[in-house]
Prior knowledge:
Elements: E1 9-12, E2 21-28, H1 33-43, E3 47-55, E4 59-67, H2 74-84, E5 88-91, E6 94-97, E7 110-117, H3 122-132, E8 135-144, E9 149-158, H4 166-180, E10 184-191, H5 194-199, H6 208-214, E11 234-238, E12 246-253, H7 258-268, E13 272-280, E14 285-293, H8 303-318, E15 322-328, E16 331-339, H9 350-360, E17 364-375, E18 378-388, H10 397-409
Antiparallel strand pairs: 1-2, 2-4, 3-4, 3-13, 5-6, 7-9, 7-10, 8-9, 8-17, 11-12, 12-14, 13-14, 15-16, 16-18, 17-18
Amino acid sequence: MGILHDDVVIIRPGEREGEPNLITVNCPDKTGLGCDLCRIILFFGLSIVRGDVSTDGKWCYIVFWVVGKSTTRWSLLKKRLVGVCPSCSSASGISFYRSELQPPKAPDVFLLKLCCFDRRGLLHDVTAVLCELELTIKKVKVSTTPDERVMDLFFITDTRELLHTKKRQEDTCGRLNDVLGDAIISCDIDMVVPEITACSQTSSFLPSAITEDMFDLEMPDELPSGILTSDNVSITMDNSLSPAHTLVQIVCQDHKGLLYDIMRTLKDYNIQISYGRFSTKQKGNCEIDLFIVQADGKKIVDPSKQNALSSRLRMELFRPLRVAVVSRGPDTELLVANPVELSGKGRPLVFYDITLALKMLNTCIFLAEIGRHIIGDREWEVYRVLLDEGDGLSVPRNKIQEGAWKMLMGWE
């Protein structure tokens, strides 16, 4: 089967103003392709309101109906979506499937050192620029000095793989200067060696009370007070409706990245989707039907495997992120965590949403860290934000926790 390269991803605007844009993907199949596509769509700030997936195990056809911002860079989105589709080689203008022979090379890591005069919302404005420029934040250390200056250290990678060039570095600092204006004092970007990256690791210590409550993967009979979750999640599995597939039916409350959370879970379990349909209903509810098979092409008949997959899906939709406001000595800390895919990729825009929520709550940040922690048998990306209380925290803790949760879930 052949297909013109330009037709791998097609994006069509809605026929009328306010109608969803249509994204179609027609390419060779691979396990986890849906997850990779949904992660990119989430990164571009778009919401999937409807989706259809079909594949014969070799070739797939995916349709997403998406809504988003007027500033969406559709041509760049198409380029990124094409980039995660299985590789193609060109022959007489026709592209055909070619298996990946080697794993992708780990991206180079750069250190962005930014010194600024402090002001409210500064960290979010910097984060917004980095997202706009497709610079991925791997780690960050932000500290405020007594003379109200801020030293931001961002360990970043470049989706465009151009940050080693002088022009890309100058463009990045120039864009930061445009946004920050007189607040910026200096901006420097350097490539870092693995030894420096290792030395910059955040503290591996997390209080046991936090890890027990925040990172429990089992659905508790009763949630501790203050734990934020989505509304009821219903998951049923049926092997009677298809001779070759297990049907998974999900009914739950919609949230930002819902389809990504489902797809990343299936990808981690090495589950393939043969056919799927996703739609949003009234009152913010969603219905998802997925016909799935295991990696060996067979349906899931083992009850223990069914229960394991169902439990994990339910928990990932019930609490896709973990949010808590805790005491750190005499200070107040906002803690946010999300699971990392087995591929090593984290959830997009988490730090962006955290800093935006705090900016809207008129709450300043004194110190911020991003790190990865192995807790149980899973890797987590953990964001620790120490709040600047000044003369006292003016916003109640529960409002900070609720504001961050709603922003991350898209319910703001």
